[in-house]
Specification:
Layout: H1 2-13, H2 16-19, E1 24-28, H3 34-52, E2 56-60, H4 64-72, E3 78-80, H5 83-92, E4 95-102, E5 108-109, E6 111-116, E7 131-135, H6 141-153, E8 162-166, H7 169-177, E9 183-187, H8 194-199, E10 205-210, E11 214-215, E12 218-222, H9 227-238, H10 244-252, E13 257-260, H11 267-277
Parallel strand pairs: 1-2, 1-3, 7-8, 7-9
Antiparallel strand pairs: 3-12, 4-12, 4-13, 5-11, 6-9, 6-10
Helix pairs in contact: 3-10, 6-11
Length: 281
């Protein structure tokens, strides 16, 4: 009886995602709104489930804060996230890297400050006293951390401009376009999203500042899964572009493919995050 009780306590201490090995939970950070994310990634989730031969549940968060809460609570077996989330998940929550996106014909991404072409702003220093809307909030890598890094390099300190947050990068871009704010913090690739191009004339926007090109958005898997299962997930995702069904699922998610990556590739993000947030990864 004592042995059974100890076993029960150990089992109950595991997160739901880990305790039930018959199903997996796939968490995606809210780069886009919830409905669009569901439409884009449902085919990929179904493909992964079919290839694994087990249920995979797509878990969508309405905002960055909710995604972070679920991640820290151990709700996810597999994540597609930004680079800050990955660094934290690797250090604190036992995740390992699978690969990164290739999208819009690129394998890299950059942080940026976006303004209207008719704004009259010629440099970041012109944003002193102005309102900048950061897409996703303080844990958004391109939309906040890298964008803020650009502002600091230009000599603008906290308090030199009005800092506001949008629920996602798309909303930050839209608010800038409609002149509700002066500038947006966002990834450069977000201007190429179909949803953005269908809603506004992106030719009326421009990059006031752009960071160096950096590694794309990562995919990571929990080390609490067995090594065999982790390897299986890795192989399925990395080779999706080699089958008709895989390519169809990638296309539905607006992805070209998922490419192999190494943790050391994320060292530039470690330095930027240390500078802006004071965190060591």
């Amino acid at each position: 009886m004592r042995i059974l009780l100890i076993f029960f306590l150990l089992l109950s201490s595991l997160s739901p995602a880990i305790a039930d090995e018959s199903s997996l939970t796939f968490g995606i950070f809210p780069r886009r709104n919830a409905q669009v994310t569901y439409e884009l990634f449902s085919p990929l989730t179904d493909y992964l489930s079919s290839e694994l031969g087990r249920p995979v549940t797509l878990d969508i968060s309405n905002n960055f804060e909710v995604f972070w809460q679920k991640l820290t609570a151990g709700k996810f077996d597999l994540i597609h996230c930004n680079q800050y989330h990955y660094l934290a998940a690797r250090k604190n929550f036992n995740f390992e890297l699978i690969g990164t996106n290739a999208e819009f014909g690129k394998t890299t991404i950059a942080g940026s400050i976006i303004v209207r072409k008719d704004s009259g702003f010629n440099s970041l220093k012109d944003l002193k006293g102005k309102t900048i809307l950061f897409g996703g909030g303080p844990s958004a890598m391109q939309g906040y951390i890298v964008a803020t890094y650009l502002l600091r390099q230009a000599g603008l300190a906290s308090g030199d401009y009005k800092e506001k947050y949008a629920i996602n990068p798309t909303n930050a871009i839209l608010a800038t376009y409609y002149q509700q704010v002066d500038a947006a913090g966002s990834a450069d690739n977000n201007l190429q999203m179909d949803r953005v191009k269908n809603l506004i004339d992106v030719s009326q926007l421009r990059f006031l500042a752009l960071s160096q090109q950096l590694p794309q958005l990562p995919w990571a898997v929990s080390r609490f899964l067995s090594p065999e299962l982790r390897m299986q997930i890795h192989e399925i995702l990395i080779t999706m572009d080699q089958t008709d069904k895989g390519r169809a699922a990638l296309h539905a998610a607006s992805l070209d493919k998922i490419i192999p990556a190494h943790d050391r590739d994320f060292d530039p993000f470690r330095e930027i995050t240390r500078t802006i947030r004071g965190e060591q990864f």
